[in-house]
Write a structure and sequence with these properties.
about 260 residues, six-stranded mixed β-sheet, 6 strands, about 40% helix
């Protein structure tokens, strides 16, 4: 190495050291990166069912379940985005895995998770809205006098695995489902609304109050026509949104 090379190498080392120090200073002094996860607004995750090759139920000229659910989810997004951080599990025509949908809610640290579907039945008269909260046979009371369910009953069930995360939120989810059902009952005319528990797979791993809303039967000609109508979907969107807002205004204040 000649003198010129030595000087050149020394200069490079000096510049590298300077750059390293500067980057260290920058890393130390830079303001925290703002991320969605750090947003002070509570998050709500909306899950439009199906998507992509999975069209869900078909309603003839009314369209298919995947499109109706996505339209409704986008309407709910617009209703709530000024107050909450809204995350959709999909915002286009593709199929997230079931696990991914729940994982999105958990990673978003959502305050509530709402999955949207329509119903379909071989019985053409089957109709109405059903709001589901998670329920599991292992969590049912063992006797009529034993009303212990949900978090209170978990101690006897051993460790809670991730796929049973919802078990800790059964009472909150039941309350949320009741409020969604109540709002929909008040806002919809001539549409029966049922609230019930069921072992709904997409809710099982949700680490927050969670519900699935089946907004009507595409196999029912009149309901299929209604669900094709954007004005009707707007009513559903406003009703579900106001119910979630009412739930969160109570739930978040009591935490
Ligand atoms: Zn569905």
């Amino acid at each position: 190495m000649n003198t010129l090379q030595t000087r050149y190498t020394a200069s490079c080392i000096f510049l590298i050291a300077l750059a390293t120090a500067a980057s260290g200073w920058w890393l130390f002094c830079r303001p925290p990166v703002s991320s969605a996860a750090e947003s002070p607004r509570p998050a709500i995750v909306i899950d439009p069912g199906h998507g992509g090759n999975d069209s869900g139920a078909a309603g003839g000229s009314a369209g298919v379940e995947k499109d109706i659910c996505l339209t409704l989810a986008q309407m709910i997004y617009i209703e709530l985005e000024s107050t909450y951080r809204i995350v959709l599990t999909r915002n286009a025509d593709y199929t997230p895995e079931l696990f991914t949908r729940t994982q999105t809610a958990n990673q978003s640290k959502a305050s509530t998770f709402v999955s949207l579907h329509t119903g379909a039945s071989v019985q053409p008269h089957a109709n109405g809205v059903t709001v589901f909260y998670y329920s599991h046979p292992a969590l049912r009371p063992s006797s009529p006098s034993d009303t212990t369910t949900g978090a209170e009953g978990l101690n006897s069930l051993g460790p809670t695995h991730w796929e049973h995360a919802q078990w800790r939120y059964l009472s909150g989810s039941q309350k949320l489902a009741g409020m969604v059902g109540e709002h929909l009952s008040n806002d919809l005319t001539d549409v029966p609304v049922t609230v019930q528990g069921a072992p709904v797979a997409v809710l099982a791993g949700a680490n927050m109050p969670a519900v699935m809303v089946e907004i009507g039967y595409l196999s029912h000609p009149k309901e299929a026509r209604n669900l094709k109508n954007r004005d009707t979907l707007e009513v559903y969107a406003k009703s579900i949104s106001s119910a979630v807002q009412a739930f969160l205004s109570q739930h978040l204040n009591t935490e």
